[in-house]
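Technical note accompanying the year-one report. For the benefit of new consortium partners, we illustrate the data format agreed upon in the data management plan: each record pairs a sequence with a structure-token string. No post-processing was applied to the example shown here.
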Amino acid sequence: MTKDQTPPDRRSVLRFTAFLGAAATAGLLLPEGSILPRTGTSGSGASRTAALTAGAGGPGPAGGPPMAAGQAVRASAYRLEPMTAHPPGPRRALPPVRRRPFHRLPESTGRTMVLTFDDGPDPRYTPAILRTLRRYDVRAMFFVCGEMVTVHRDLLREIADDGHVIGNHSWSHPLIPRLAPSAIRDELGRTSEVIEEVSGLPPLWYRAPFGAWNRHSFEIGAELGMEPLAWTVDTLDWTEPGAGTIVSRVLDGAGPGVVVLSHDAGGDRSQSVAALRNYLPKLLEDGYRLTVPRR
């Protein structure tokens, strides 16, 4: 071999290095966990009167004491998989990034309403609510907290088996605007993971604790495939005003597309359970159809 000849092994290395450089230049290689920029997700076209948008004059945040923080946060697995992990399959289209949550039932027609219950599941009150809904063959939405699901998995399965929609209500019920984006991602991502693990389906809707949203929560929620849903009628049942008062608030606020906020956890919810038994048959007698949003 002459002095100016390149050894075969070295030639192979040089060719491979050149290939990597060309691939990186073409954008074929990304760092692990990189997320591609999204386009066309602006919510600037929202209209106050459109059925698919929430009015700026929607209800304010729901009160109530925050739930205790959960265990130590770990990194969420809800991210893009490396390109070489497995053959690409069909991917669910991501929703647009909203500027505000829905306050009414999207695409509502006729006398339809939605009943929603937050903070559970709780074995003291959720089963009684499920029995009442089952008695009248009504579907509702349950916005659950991840730390509650981890200790009441069978109850979440029961909710799913009854055909109710399960939404994401964060892991530990924090005030979202006080969190860094990474912490918001952990709160929502971990909860989506455990919901899908237990029920078999990822959540398509989420609700910020206390109704406190911010730009990061809208962006991260959309990245996780979820739409934000608030409410039209707040029963304020967490203040324990009495079952009769809760019933009056629901019946007085009833209307097409209305979303009712109640709770099945986070405190003594016996009044909420009793109120549901009273107002649900009355709504049905008045011709309302209790349903859940479709996506």
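Partners are asked to follow this layout when depositing records. The first strand starts at residue 112 and ends at 118.
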